[in-house]
């Protein structure tokens, strides 16, 4: 498979994040969940591609950054998939993938937190 040499910041520009949620545990860990989708088409050397790697969820309380969570793309990167009972893979083109991450000991219950996504290590792979 071909892999792009595009900088992570450029790959990141193709991503859109929706349904961002944070939850604080009793011990102060903040879980971050989001849906990531690719806007438009991404290619690697003129071949259809998908985004893989991870993004960083910066967690804020007001204007103060309190921590980070790494949000790793699943097995097929930005391609939504599910396993069928027959052990075959079902690809759902154009659907967002679920990302999850956690930041330990950075939160307090009862406080509201916001998330800003920034590039981690990202690349485009050939489909």
What can you tell me about this protein's structure?
4% of the residues lie in helices and 57% in strands. The chain is built from one helix and nine strands; from the N terminus they run H-E-E-E-E-E-E-E-E-E. The strands form three sheets. Strands 3, 4, 5 and 9 form a four-stranded antiparallel β-sheet that branches. Strands 1-2-8 form a three-stranded antiparallel β-sheet, with no helix packed on it. The chain is globular, with a radius of gyration of 16 Å. It starts with 7 loop residues before the first helix and ends with a strand.
SSE layout:
Blueprint lengths: L7 H5 L2 E10 L5 E9 L4 E2 L2 E15 L2 E9 L7 E4 L5 E4 L4 E7 L10 E13 L1
Antiparallel strand pairs: 1-2, 2-8, 3-4, 4-5, 4-9, 6-7
Return the structural class. mainly beta
What is the residue-mean pLDDT, rounded to a whole number? 94
Query: Taking Cα atoms only, what radius of gyration do you get, to the nearest Å?
Result: 16 Å
Alpha carbon gap, first and last residue: 8 Å
Q: Give the ordered list of helices and strands.
A: HEEEEEEEEE
Helical region count? 1
Query: What is the number of E strands?
Result: 9
* Cα shape: globular
Question: Summarize this, please?
Answer:
Helices cover about 5% and strands about 55% of the residues. The chain has about 130 residues and is mainly beta. The strands form three sheets. Strands 3, 4, 5 and 9 form a four-stranded antiparallel sheet that branches. Strands 1-2-8 form a three-stranded antiparallel sheet, with no helix packed on it. The chain has a two-stranded antiparallel ribbon with strand order 6-7.
């Amino acid at each position: 498979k071909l892999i792009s040499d595009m900088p992570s910041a450029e790959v990141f520009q193709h991503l859109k994040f929706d349904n961002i949620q944070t939850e604080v545990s009793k011990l102060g860990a903040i879980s971050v969940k989001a849906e990531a989708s690719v806007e438009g088409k991404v290619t690697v050397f003129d071949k259809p591609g998908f985004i893989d790697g991870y993004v960083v969820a910066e967690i804020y309380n007001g204007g103060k950054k309190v921590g980070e969570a790494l949000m790793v793309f699943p097995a097929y990167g930005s391609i939504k998939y599910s396993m069928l009972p027959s052990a075959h893979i079902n690809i759902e083109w154009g659907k967002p993938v679920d990302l999850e991450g956690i930041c330990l000991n950075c939160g307090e219950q009862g406080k509201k937190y916001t998330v800003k996504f920034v590039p981690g290590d990202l690349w485009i792979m050939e489909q």
